[in-house]
């Protein structure tokens, strides 16, 4: 009985684990959304203090609205593995950016990389606009006649003079007038936030539909392809750590024991170049990655590197 209960429990645990593994993209985006909401609340409550004057409101509010979005975009590109696969070494060999001379395919890959990096900035802009704090400060400092007429239409001249002070409690307007202007600013901010959310959802749906429509493989084969790429990356990371550990141990043993190192098979430079290229599917080959295409080649060059090291002009400093 105990064995049966344990088996049933393990089966349930594996089912839950498989569910989370299959939904890890959704979980990742949800976690990113929570971090974005938390970060926005911290910014608006702790560090954001609207100066409430005509000269500083707009640049100050716009900096808090767009600054974190720009930083998140840069970080999204910086941590993009796909971008570095294309960019690394392209100054010495520009054809790495457009393998086989397919410029349209290269542009499509860059668009995919950029759109992936835009997820976090769009989340930040949406959350910040729905909250309205940064937008209220930025727009209230504009001296443009269209903006002033929009908020102070059929109001006294004092409204024009005190509009920049509305986000603060230092306004000389009555509490009712101030609340009315504040609600108008917040409503505009939230409308703009929802427009960004709706537009992003529509663009994402159309982009996914176009990508699937232009797919050269069926839905199930595409699903298998994605699973294979994930597993290959996980296995590569594990195998690379294990192999690098063995190589380090072999080199250290040779150094401390003061003897020649034992033979150690290692891929040559061209092999690394081939498996590092960004792979595009071809019906004539039907491989699922550059690694599979390389290992299934019949004319592979098995000549190992004489010494598996990297050469830089300025050397490498290890810390």
UniProtKB/TrEMBL annotation:
Source species: Seriola dumerili
Membrane topology: Multi-pass membrane protein
Family, as annotated: Belongs to the CALHM family.
Molecular function via GO: monoatomic cation channel activity
Protein name: Calcium homeostasis modulator family member 5, tandem duplicate 2
Annotated localization: Membrane
GO process terms (BP): ATP export
UniProt KW keywords: Ion channel, Ion transport, Membrane, Transmembrane, Transmembrane helix, Transport
InterPro entries: CALHM
Regions that span the bilayer: 27-46, 58-79, 105-125, 191-210
Pfam family for this entry, one: Ca_hom_mod
One GO cellular component, as annotated: plasma membrane
């Amino acid at each position: 009985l105990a064995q049966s209960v344990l088996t049933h429990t393990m089966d349930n645990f594996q089912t839950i684990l498989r569910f989370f593994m299959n939904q890890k993209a959704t979980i990742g985006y949800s976690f990113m959304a929570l971090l974005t909401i938390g970060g926005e609340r911290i910014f608006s409550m702790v560090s954001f203090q609207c100066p409430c004057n005509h000269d500083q409101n707009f640049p100050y509010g716009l900096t808090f609205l767009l600054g974190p979005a720009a930083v998140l975009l840069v970080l999204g590109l910086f941590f993009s593995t796909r971008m570095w696969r294309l960019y690394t070494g392209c100054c010495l060999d520009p054809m790495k950016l457009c393998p086989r001379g397919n410029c349209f395919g290269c542009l499509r890959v860059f668009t995919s990389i950029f759109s992936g990096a835009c997820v976090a900035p769009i989340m930040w802009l949406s959350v910040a606009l729905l909250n309205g704090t940064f937008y209220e400060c930025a727009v209230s400092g504009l001296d443009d006649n269209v903006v002033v007429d929009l908020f102070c239409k059929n109001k006294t001249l004092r409204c024009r003079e005190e509009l920049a002070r509305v986000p603060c409690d230092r306004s000389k307007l009555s509490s009712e007038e101030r609340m009315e202007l504040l609600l108008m600013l917040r409503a505009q901010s939230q409308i703009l936030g929802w427009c960004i959310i709706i537009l992003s959802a529509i663009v994402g749906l159309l982009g996914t539909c176009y990508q699937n429509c232009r797919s050269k493989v069926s839905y199930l084969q595409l699903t298998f392809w994605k699973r294979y790429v994930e597993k290959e990356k996980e296995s590569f990371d594990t195998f690379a750590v294990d192999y690098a550990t063995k190589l380090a141990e072999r080199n250290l043993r040779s150094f401390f024991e003061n003897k020649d190192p034992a033979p150690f098979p290692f891929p040559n430079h061209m092999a690394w170049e081939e498996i590092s290229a960004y792979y595009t599917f071809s019906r004539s080959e039907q491989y699922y990655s550059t690694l599979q295409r390389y290992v299934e080649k019949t004319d592979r060059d098995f000549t190992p590197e004489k010494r598996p090291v990297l050469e830089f002009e300025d050397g490498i400093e290890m810390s």
